[in-house]
Amino acid sequence: MSTCAASALEFEIALQPKQWELDELIEKSEATTFGYGGRRGGGKSGGMRRIFLRRRFDYPGTDGILLRRTYQELKDNHLTPMFREWPFIRDWWRADDKAIMCPNGSRLLFRYAEHETDIDKLFGVEYADVGPEEAGLFSQREIEKMKGSNRCTGISPIKPIMLLSFMPGGRSHSYLKRIFIDGAKDRSVYEANEDPGDFAFVEAVGWDNVEWCRKLLVRDGYSDKDFYSWTSDQRKAYFLTSEYGRKLLSITDKVLRDAWLDGNWDAFEGLIFPELSDTIHNLDQFTNDFQPKGMRLVSAIDWADSGIAGGEQAAVDTEENLFFFDEYHERNRTVREHSIDLIAMLNSHGRQDYTLMDLPVNNINQDNLFSIQDAFRRGGLHTVQAYRANIQIGLDLLKDFLRVDPNRVHPFTQQLGSPRLFISRRKCPALWAQMKNLQRSIDAETGKVKYVGEDDNLDPARYLAMSRPKPAEITKRAPEKLPVTTFEQKAARSISRFDKSFGKDPSANEWFGKS
């Protein structure tokens, strides 16, 4: 329980135990970027709202911002519950600014950003607290843009923080999982410019939130204090008897149920490549130093208007197994800079059979009459057009390559039972992560399929798969059976050959004399 003073008005902000744990971590730890989430219904929205509001009163004259993708989400998840919990806060609400104007000069802003361009417009000023809710729906690039405005100048003693709530899945799933989930177990996953001490995570589960069990507690004569005195297992069992708990438990899709109920970070809704396995497809499991001796080398690149370029180096053996063993993934560079490093990577492995590039980059840009493929060619990188097809067709082909064929000889173990596709997780981390995290969502109104996730290195892999169709099966043909010939047929053929040789009909009278 936290007490806030606003002029002569004092009010209490009640925090659930897990929300209190997060609040204490924010104030007392050295971390500046906090993750909060895991399962559905863990009280993430309420926790973020209460903590940000508490900090506005504890640190006068500071600004905080809560973000969602749409305004309706802001209204349903924050504004309506907040006005219901503290009706007097309506007096501080400024609809035009979409902000709570606190009496002490602090502001809590509520914003939505449907597109990355909206992020650019929002984050031109500083915010002491930045809170993208359901952060997985924002890309890593968008989250990092927000960090640029997560600061506070002046004399306030506040420590600027970013608080991200999220569940498994979403566009930035791999990024959030790496910095919060994987990083807690293995600090080597952090990149060179990331300080492991900057990150902290608090897991939220449905049975941390007493509100789901409120009706049951009243019925059974228990209090909130009783509920939180139980062990996590006891609260979970009780939660699963609640209306919401039963709904989650009744989900028949195991992947979805595991993500929403148990917070499984390795499986979530809409996963495209659930068959991708470290033990089956990771090239590093079978060799520490893959050498494509005697194999054909093929490669593909993908360039985006954002300046990101992805490239994949692969090898193909005589059985048409596809081995991805090196990659390129860089952003914010010129085409010439991309070309130089891509050429260096490809040349380090040997002569390429071909290097593919997506067809649209060959189209002329009407603004400058010069294509991106021409730009790469000028940089010394010569490519051919990739096989053009519906995205789903390419993804399905990759899935076929991943499936274990019980009649296929494994290229490393020589045993029956093998996929056609192997990826070095160590040398091709971007491809592995993008395949692991790509999701498919279906618009409920239009029925259109939308793919969610980064694909800068996945697209080159798709192009290469399309260029290596399943090899034709060789079937043994039975020897041709000669027709049975009669004496008359043999004689007829002989007469025919005689006629061609002498130009006369051997049955004519002149050959046999006159009668």
Q: How would you describe this structure to a colleague?
A:
The chain is of the alpha/beta class and 515 residues long. It has 3 domains: 2-204, P-loop containing nucleotide triphosphate hydrolases (Rossmann fold, 3-Layer(aba) Sandwich), CATH 3.40.50.300; 211-262, no CATH class; 278-467, 2-Layer Sandwich (Nucleotidyltransferase, domain 5). The protein is built from 19 helices and 20 strands. It has helices at residues 17-28, 44-58, 71-85, 116-122, 140-147, 173-182, 214-220, 224-229, 232-239, 243-249, 254-262, 278-281, 335-347, 372-378, 391-402, 429-437, 458-467, 487-502, 509-512, and strands spanning 2-6, 9-13, 33-38, 63-68, 93-94, 99-101, 107-112, 129-132, 161-166, 199-204, 296-303, 309-316, 322-330, 354-357, 384-385, 405-409, 416-418, 421-423, 439-442, 449-452. The strands form 5 sheets. An 8-stranded mixed sheet has the order 5-6-7-4-8-9-3-10, sandwiched between helices. It has a 6-stranded mixed sheet with strand order 15-14-11-12-13-18. The chain has a two-stranded antiparallel sheet with strand order 1-2. Helix 5 links the parallel strand 8 and strand 9. Helix 13 (335-347) packs across helix 14 (372-378) and helix 15 crosses helix 17. The model is unreliable at 364-369, 471-475 and 504-515 (pLDDT under 50).
Summarize the structure.
The protein is α/β, with parallel strands linked by helices. It contains 19 helices and 20 strands. The strands form five sheets. Strands 5-6-7-4-8-9-3-10 form an eight-stranded mixed beta sheet, sandwiched between helices. It has a six-stranded mixed beta sheet with strand order 15-14-11-12-13-18. A two-stranded antiparallel ribbon has the order 1-2.
